[in-house]
Amino acid sequence: MPNLFISLSKTQIVKSDDVIALLDLLRGYKKIAVVTGKNHFKVSSHYERVYNVLSSLGGEFVIVSEVEPNPTLENIDFCYDILRSFKPEILVGIGGGSVMDATKAIALKLANDGIDVWDCVEGNVIPERALPTVMVPTTSGTGSEVNRYSVITNKVKVQKRALRSQAIYPKYALLIPSMTSDMNKHLTAITAIDALSHAVESLVSKNSNPISESLSEKAIRLILSNIFVAYNNGGDLISRENLQFASTLGGLAIDITGVGLMHAIEHPITARFPHISHGQGLAILFRKVVEHSFMFNVEKYKKVADAFGIKVRGNNDMVVMHTLIDAIDYLVTYLGLNKKLSDFGVEKSDLKHIAEDAVTYMGRSIASSPYSPSKDSIEKILREVF
Ligand SMILES: [Fe+2]
Question: Pick from 1, 167, 272, 342: most CB atoms within 10 A?
Answer without folding.
Answer: 167
